[in-house]
């Protein structure tokens, strides 16, 4: 075997390897038509090179004739495959049309080649003399007589070269990196074709390199495709790394968000959502009352926040959280419920009463939390109120449990704070009624559900001197509701201001309806401390008498001692301003609150009302030093004295003996609606002797 033939066989092996590799790459995994086309082209070229080597080695004319026919058959397959590959390589839009045209032309040549006696380009093949290679070896050369289709075959072959050149130009126009290897191949193939043409025209006996030039196509195109595959693999690896990094970052973000969603940002404790999930899970698996939900509230924490700032408040919350974590029983969940509230879900020890065990835990937690704190330069102390719900108890779900513990905490705070209350079912009924009343209050004014009842005040001679306006709420479902039940709710919700304006206006308006007969009688109107604290209180009172044409001297404004606990100077200023306009002021429920006797001199009072607790034990002929002292002090201050809650003749006689100016109570009559009160006034003789006198 000559060196030249060996080179052809080596080229054949390279093409075969490249073809198999490309076909596998194009058919496994994601289908890639470009690799498939290159693989088919390389396999066909491998066969073409193998046949070329066999022809140079053939020593029989019949064998050579069959090999040449077979080689031309492969050539008719190679050129359509080349069009298929180059169309994909250059990404031509109309590559299917070019492929169809090439297949049609070379398909016809292929059929003719198979049907002819010799081949499509030779009518007869004869042996030519041997070609001596420069290094001394010889190979067989065969020639033949040209057929009529000889020129057509080579024209079609040249057309493929022109097509390849067009593909190369298209790549250059797009500045594609694929243009370089295709250009280099076309130069090599062109030089090989020129060399073969020169050899054929000159009659020189030497081998041509057109077949070996196909190796350049396989090597250059294969290298380019390998490079692109490597680039795609690198890009894929890079994208995969980016995806992994993005996944890692997303997991970090999700972890952070999950932590933020279930933890309080100030204290780092679990938050309300985490508490809810924890309690819900516990209720799902627990079936006995051996665990409890505890809600702790820092009493008057708002004062610390307002006085020292939120930074100090936050540091105090962190310190409280640290103590809770240290003192909580093992396995407990400690959470910040919101604001200054902390929650614990604790397991209760077996063998003890759940209520007693829960109280003991709260007692220990309270002792820990109420110890002094040092926050920066401040020494602070807080009280703790606690609500306790024993679980599962009456709580069927987590919402019920949270409502129960909130109700218990509200009851603890309402009981004077710094105490612990265990939830009872009665509390829920009371809380439900309170919620019902709160909702109804917001609509009561619009629906005209409020009405005023009046209770008269009579002096020692039985003369009608005033009537106290008492607010009642006629609820559409629950009937008449006393003010002691709904006024605290109105004060907490801020509705007291609108209700207070209604009472002022309505009392003045209805007073004018009986002014013709009792011109000097006054109407007494109770005002809430929250009304007094309002900046527009003076204007509100003034508007009420102006719109109803009521004389200020006929209006007595009753205030309680509790109104004097907050900003006494502001209250006194407003009272003096109204007193200067003619309004009277009465200090209501005297003796039941925290007012000092000094307030009797500092405030522009006209009337003092003795609380019913001092009246209950009075008997005729038995002097009560305390009540006598109150009446004497009031008279020293030129105050008109009214005793409330007078129910018996004995009480009336005792008060008359002590010099009380007027009485009010069931002895005279119960509070009456306006129409009934008018009728009572019409029946009142002048003067009247009191019952029991």
Protein described:
The chain is of the alpha/beta class and 693 residues long. Helices cover 56% and strands 16% of the residues. Helix 1 (3-27) runs parallel beside helix 7 (210-262) and helix 13 crosses helix 14 (483-493). The mean pLDDT is 87.
Shape-level CATH architecture of the largest domain: Alpha-Beta Barrel
CATH class assignment of the largest domain: Alpha Beta
Average per-residue pLDDT, rounded, comes to 87
Please mark out the parts with pLDDT under 50 across 5 or more consecutive residues, or reply none: none
Walk across the major sheet and give the strand order.
12-13-15-16-17-18-19-20
Structural class: alpha/beta
CATH superfamily of the largest domain: EAL domain
Instruction: Return the domain count.
Output: 3
**First-to-last CA distance:** 155 Å
Number of strands: 21
Classify the fold: give the CATH topology of the largest domain: TIM Barrel
Principal-axes geometry comes out as rod-shaped
The gyration radius over C-alpha positions equals 55 Å
Helicity level, as a percent range?
Answer: 55-70%
Number of helices: 23
Strand content: 15-25%
What is the topology?
Layout: H1 3-27, H2 33-57, H3 61-89, H4 95-115, E1 122-127, E2 131-132, E3 138-139, E4 142-146, H5 150-173, H6 179-202, H7 210-262, H8 272-285, E5 291-299, H9 301-308, H10 310-327, E6 333-338, E7 341-347, H11 354-369, E8 373-375, E9 378-380, E10 383-391, H12 398-414, E11 420-422, H13 425-444, E12 450-459, E13 464-475, E14 479-481, H14 483-493, H15 496-511, E15 522-526, H16 529-533, H17 537-548, E16 555-560, H18 568-579, E17 584-590, H19 599-602, E18 607-610, H20 612-615, H21 625-636, E19 640-643, H22 649-658, E20 662-663, E21 672-673, H23 674-682
Parallel strand pairs: 10-11, 13-15, 15-16, 16-17, 17-18, 18-19, 19-20
Antiparallel strand pairs: 1-4, 2-3, 5-7, 5-10, 6-7, 8-9, 12-13, 12-20, 12-21, 13-14
Helix pairs in contact: 1-2, 1-7, 2-3, 2-7, 3-4, 3-5, 5-6, 6-7, 8-12, 9-10, 10-11, 13-14, 15-17, 17-18
């Amino acid at each position: 075997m000559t060196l030249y033939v060996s080179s052809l066989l080596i080229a054949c092996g390279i093409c075969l390897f490249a073809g198999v590799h490309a076909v596998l790459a194009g058919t496994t995994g994601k289908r890639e038509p470009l690799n498939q086309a290159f693989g088919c082209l390389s396999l066909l070229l491998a066969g073409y090179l193998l046949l070329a080597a066999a022809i140079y080695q053939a020593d029989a004319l019949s064998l050579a004739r069959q090999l040449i026919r077979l080689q031309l058959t492969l050539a008719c397959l190679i050129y359509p495959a080349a069009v298929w590959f180059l169309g994909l390589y250059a990404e031509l839009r109309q590559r299917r049309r070019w492929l169809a045209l090439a297949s049609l032309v070379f398909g016809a040549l292929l059929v003719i080649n198979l049907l002819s006696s010799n081949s499509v380009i030779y009518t007869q093949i004869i042996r030519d003399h041997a070609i001596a290679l420069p290094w001394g070896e010889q190979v067989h050369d065969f020639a033949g007589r040209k057929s009529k289709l000889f020129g057509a075959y080579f024209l079609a072959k040249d057309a493929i070269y022109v097509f390849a050149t067009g593909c190369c130009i298209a790549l250059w126009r797009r500045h594609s990196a694929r243009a370089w290897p295709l250009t280099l191949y076309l130069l090599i193939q062109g030089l090989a074709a020129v060399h073969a043409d020169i050899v054929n025209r000159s009659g020189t006996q030497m081998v041509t390199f057109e077949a070996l030039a196909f190796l350049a196509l396989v090597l250059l195109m294969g290298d380019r495709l390998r490079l692109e595959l490597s680039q795609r693999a690198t890009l894929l690896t890079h994208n995969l790394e980016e995806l992994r990094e993005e996944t890692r970052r997303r997991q970090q973000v999700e972890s952070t968000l999950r932590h933020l969603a279930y933890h309080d940002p100030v204290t780092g404790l679990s938050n309300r959502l985490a508490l809810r999930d924890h309690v819900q899970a516990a209720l799902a698996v627990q079936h006995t009352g051996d665990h409890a939900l505890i809600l702790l509230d820092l009493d008057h924490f708002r004062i610390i926040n307002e006085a020292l700032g939120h930074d100090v408040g936050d540091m105090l919350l962190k310190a409280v959280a640290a103590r809770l974590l240290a003192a909580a029983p093992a396995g407990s969940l400690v959470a910040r419920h919101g604001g200054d509230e902390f929650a614990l879900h604790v397991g209760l020890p077996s063998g003890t009463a759940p209520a007693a065990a829960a109280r003991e835990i709260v007692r220990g937690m309270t002792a820990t939390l109420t110890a002094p704190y040092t926050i920066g330069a401040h020494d602070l102390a807080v009280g703790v109120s606690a609500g306790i719900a024993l679980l599962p108890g009456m709580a069927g779900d987590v919402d019920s449990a949270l409502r129960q513990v909130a109700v218990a905490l509200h009851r603890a705070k309402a009981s004077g704070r710094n105490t612990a209350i265990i939830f009872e079912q009665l509390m829920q009924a009371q809380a439900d009624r309170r919620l019902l009343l709160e909702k109804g209050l917001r609509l009561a004014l619009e629906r005209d559900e409020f009405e005023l009842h009046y209770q008269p005040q009579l002096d020692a001679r039985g003369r009608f001197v005033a009537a106290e306006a008492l607010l009642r709420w006629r609820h559409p479902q629950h009937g008449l509701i006393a003010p002691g039940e709904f006024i605290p709710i109105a004060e907490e919700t801020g509705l007291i201001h609108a209700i207070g304006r209604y009472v002022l206006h309505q009392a003045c308006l209805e007073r004018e309806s009986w002014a013709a007969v009792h011109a000097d009688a006054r109407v007494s109107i109770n005002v809430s401390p929250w009304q007094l604290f309002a900046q527009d209180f003076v204007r509100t009172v003034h508007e009420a008498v102006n719109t109803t044409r009521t004389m200020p001297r006929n209006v007595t404004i009753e205030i309680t001692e509790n109104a004097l606990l907050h900003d006494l100077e502001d209250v006194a200023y407003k009272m003096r301003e109204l007193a200067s306009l003619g309004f009277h002021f009465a200090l209501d429920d005297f003796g039941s609150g925290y007012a000092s006797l000094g307030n009797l001199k500092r405030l522009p009072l006209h009337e003092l009302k003795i609380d019913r607790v001092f009246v209950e034990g009075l008997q005729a002929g038995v002097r009560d030093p305390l009540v006598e002292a109150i009446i004497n002090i009031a008279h020293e201050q030129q105050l008109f004295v009214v005793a409330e809650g007078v129910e018996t003749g004995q009480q009336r006689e005792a008060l008359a003996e002590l010099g009380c100016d007027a009485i009010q109570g069931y002895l005279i009559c119960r509070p009456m609606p306006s129409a009934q009160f008018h009728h009572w006034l019409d029946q009142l003789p002048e003067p009247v002797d009191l019952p029991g006198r």
